[in-house]
Structures
1.
Amino acid sequence: MTNTGFTAGIDVGGTKCLAVIIDPDNNIVAESRVPTPRGATALIDMVEAVAVELIELSGGLDGIGVGVPGQMDLSGRMAFAPNLDLGDLPIQQLLEDRLEVEIVIDNEANCAAAAELQLGVARGVSDAVLITLGTGFGNAIIVNGDVSRGAFGMAGELGHTVVNPSGPECGCGNRGCLECYASGSGLQWMAREAVERGETTRLLALAGGDIENVRGEHVTRAARDGDKAAIGVIDRFSWWLALGLANAVAILDPEMVILGGGLVTDWDLFEGRVRSHYDKMVLAGPYRPPLRIEPVALGERAGALGAALSARVHKGFAN
Ligand SMILES: [Zn+2]
């Protein structure tokens, strides 16, 4: 066990893994990226290899925080991660058996929320909802100035609330979860549907003529080029996201919604549409302040940074 004031955070995303080392003043002093492998053993091997690299780079770490795209329980067991097709994985124990450093595990969106609370856009905020629009729909809930984990550690899964029981099958086993629509994979699915219906040739051309290659980035590019079908997909996506926001606001009444994830880069394409749909759906709309929506201040590193901060808090180095 060292006492250097340096900790590391490893943000295991659905497709890529981003790791950082922070110094005692919370500055990022090193970072590393690798793709996220499939399967439990490969995942643990990858996190171990990244952790060993970070320990060598830093010359000693006080702790390592790991953010995962799944539900953690309070004992460090990953209960369910549909986007990785994993469940019931005692990830903290498995890593502590291999590494001589304290390991703290949390949901990646919870990590991002912890970072935004301490260093970012949520400083001084009491109640907020954080949403990461990446491959999936990540979510964390901030209540009374802290990340709310629920009774069993598994709160904050707005993405898996069912919004259409006859909708497409979700990775979690249900049908028509919000994540099926309001996520990068949802955007891709809706775009492929539009191509299949023959509504757009521009989207197909951007994807090299292969419908299986149509991705979210093609939708935003085609929409910027004025492609009507792509704009229609953006509007449909925005309707579903607005529905999720209206539901979250009805339950949690947050001061702000913090948006992260890859889709935020193109938020200008979505914002007006999301707000317009949301205003028609939200409960007591005329009697509540306009929804404050802020992008994450810490960008794509929010999750890794939050994981590193969690490792420090856990060690008693909280600022
Ligand atoms: Zn689901």
Note: The two ends are 20 Å apart (CA to CA).
2.
Amino acid sequence: MEKLDSYKVDLKGMSEGTVSYNWRVEDDFFSAVQGPEIQQGQLDVALRVKRTAGAYELKFQLDGTVKVLCDRCLDYMDCPIRAEHVLRAKLGDEFADDGDLIVVPKDDGVLNVAWNIYEFAALEIPLRHVHPDGACSQQMTVALDSLAPAEEKEKSIDPRWNELKKILDNNKK
Ligand SMILES: [Zn+2]
């Protein structure tokens, strides 16, 4: 995961106050993270880390577009991402993440936020995502339509009907 080393945030090393990070994440980021929902996209990510007594507040801002597969035509479509998320972290004995608070081992004191950035982006993808009407890939739509009747044909040859037919045929004898 060397590719994601630039997403390390040195919590222990920072003095009280605020530190800002800015990243532009692109396709190579998504291929390194290997998340299930997003394989391509471009996002501008801004992170402001605020250190207060004994804790850290990490405020992420994501702005850009990711590519996801359209539910209707299975071709890629752009999904705009604009999100703001806050994470809280503190230093402790061993790593823990309960969703609200991340405990970062104090020996290391470094938190890699690559996966957090990925998750914040993935959260913005609507459950059902389709192209606007008429914008679906024509090629894919035609291909899918030609598959549909074949599926129906298969359904009509339900093996149970063949069994029933055998019984009926036997009764006739
Ligand atoms: Zn589509």
Note: The mean pLDDT is 87.
3.
Amino acid sequence: MILVIVILLLVVGTVLFHFLSPWWFTPIASNWSAIDDTISITMWVTGVVFIAVNLFVAYAIYKFRYNKNRKAAYEPENKKLEIWLTVGTSLGIAAMLAPGLIVWANFVQVPDEAAEIEVLAQQWRWSYRFPGQDGKLGNVSTHLVSESNPFGINPQDPAGQDDILVAGNEVHLPEGKPVKVLLRSLDVLHNFAVPQFRVKMDLVPGMVSYFWFTPTRAGTYEILCQELCGLAHHAMRGQVVVDTPQEYQNWLNSHPTFSQTQIVVKGDPHTGQSLYAVCAACHGMEGEGNALTNSPKLSGLSGWYLEHQLQLYKQKIRGAHKEDIYGRQMAPMAAVLADDTAMRNVLAYIDTLPDKPAVDTITGNVNRGRNYYVNCASCHGDRGEGNFFMQAPRLAGQQDWYLKRQLQNFKKGIRGGHPDDFNGRQMAMMAAILKSEQAIDDLVAYLNTL
Ligand SMILES: [Cu+2]
């Protein structure tokens, strides 16, 4: 009897939970309401069957409960009941599967007027490519991927020259216009998903997968990687901003074409040398770093990393936190470099400076540090040499007190806490695994051995 009550409560509770719980679809922002309909149909079919089966079980337990004056009848076959159940089950399953097949067919049947965009995934970031004036995306190959050509566009293909490249994690789309989304991965399996659009598709290395949709509501939506693609999988986030067509055009025009990215002017180290005089006061004549001015070593760091940091300082993304005492000393110095040319020149000069290893000041348990570093190596490299594709700087040879301070700042959100600091935020999540000051010392002591 208790069992009957438990089953009845379970049924009533489940139904109430379904209708009263606040967890339901996010408001839809695309044309794919048909996907919600198929899920609703599945809910109804499985819901009705769930209630019917449980009520029948409860009824049977009650009706046929033990009674010493009753004996069970043996009845292994019942044609009528079997036919009835087979037909009923088949209809139910067909009702669940058929709408899904229809919707899936539409999902990959792209209308002619859809504009193409390409989404490129790599551990652990998204970037985007739009066809330029010619409306055609150029040929690509992973063999051509390099620091100056992160999309691997074939420079011989005229269709690729005007492709517009978006290096950040944020992409804009015009409201009300259908888009075909082409998906490409540079390394492992990823999955592109935007819950409000109801879209979700794997990115498979070596092939181009696709789907289409029409954004129907202006707003900002989060892109998630819904494939467990490695250590920092949870940090692989992006954003889609749905704009009016005019705002979208303006945004798109603010990005360079492939051919523009190929004609980067080289900096001039001679002009850079005089600009560096300001920096030398803190960072040292040879960019070797100086503990007295709290300034890190700059020599030996890659140009792309230094440039990115200077941009962050200039845009008040790094060195703006009120507790960032040392970053706030640096930020006005970045502003001394008036434009991109000045920045390139000073970086060209820093590139000529000798790369001398820093003096060790921190001791710790190197073996423990090595174990912590296993997590860091996937971005910073086994020898702490840095990796452009992860945007992760070289750590080997850097002043150890500076590394320690950065790790503490990442942990406290003093660095990487700004909403526009994508790389810093990713790094901050990683710094969180170093639970204590001792752990940081051990890790930095290990870095000193690289
Ligand atoms: Cu991923």
Note: Residues 121, 190, 225, 227, 229, 233, 236 surround copper (II) ion (CB under 6 Å).
4.
Amino acid sequence: MQNLEPGMPQPLNFYSFTLEGLEKFLKQYGKEKFRAQQIFKWVYEQRVTDFDQMLNLSKDLRAELKNLITFNLPPIVKHLVSVDGTQKFLFDVRDGNSIEAVVIPSDDRLTLCVSSEIGCNMACQFCFTGKQKLKRRLDTYEIVGQFMQVQDILNKSGLKLSNIVFMGMGEPLDNCEAVFGAIDVIHSPWGVNLSRKKITVSTSGLIPEMWRVADAKVRLAVSLNGYNDEVRSLVMPINKKYPLADLLEECKSYYRATGDKITMEYVLLKGVTDQLDHAKQLVKLLRDVPCKINLIPFNEHPGSGFERPSDETVQAFHTECMRLGAQVLLRRTMGRDIYAACGQLTTKVNRPETMDISNSKIGGNNARSFSSGQPGL
Ligand code: SF4
């Protein structure tokens, strides 16, 4: 959240404000508290972001607020559409940096995967973002902004985002203040008004901050990717600091607090995590953790040292987990041709925009590219 002290550099960005925060801010300038509610209605219900059009505010107040508050959002500089309907949006977040957000369609939902940081310090070995050191943590408005910018574009086609997952670039629990500030805005009735059950925070396992996910009463996903400490430490260095036993205990605490099962993300890496014996060890490891397992076949990216298992191996792993009684889902790879799939996001456009997946089961490479503002959704 933003510093609300008068005298600080102005203007502030509206999309970082909570209702309470804006009320306090206006009070410091001698304005009535209820004005905050009026402004929130204009912005999140009417999508009016020009004070001159907020006609229930006095002319003088509108003129004053224009100098105090801005509605600027990171511009979309690239929009790619995959053959499977996945859409990737590239945002300019200043200083030559960009972040990516991805819209993933499925039968009954339209999910937005947002970024929380530019780069990431967690260095997960299967992840393209993890190869790019943390440059900056995003502000609340830059996270809310990804949602609002994409929703504004989808509005033109009568579509509505139904879910949001914090699984894009960055470790969300490494940027708690901005992430949970954004969740407050996205969940609250005065903001976007999305149910808590439609919001998921994914972590690589930053145990000291995981209580916050339960506290916010949103869904928890854990990037597991290993069936024992040795393998997990190889794939995810954070495991050396926060080993599996502690991580799984924390998951159980989350379940006790919320009653919600945890989603365990498990990337299938050829020869590393994809063997039948690995499936056995994985199911055994999670035996007493209330969870569902999400299997994700590895998605290639330039310079990755891992390989994607064959479809047959993936299928066999899935079948074995089910045979052993696990609740397990094989995630259909989405957006791979536009580098929008899990683990493929980057802070720079330093690779081809699209990848030829013509031999893949998800279809040929007919990905489309749009500049900002163009329809095509
Ligand atoms: S998987 Fe997530 S936490 Fe791990 S390096 Fe990539 S962005 Fe960071």
Note: Residues 356 and 365 are 5 Å apart (CA to CA).
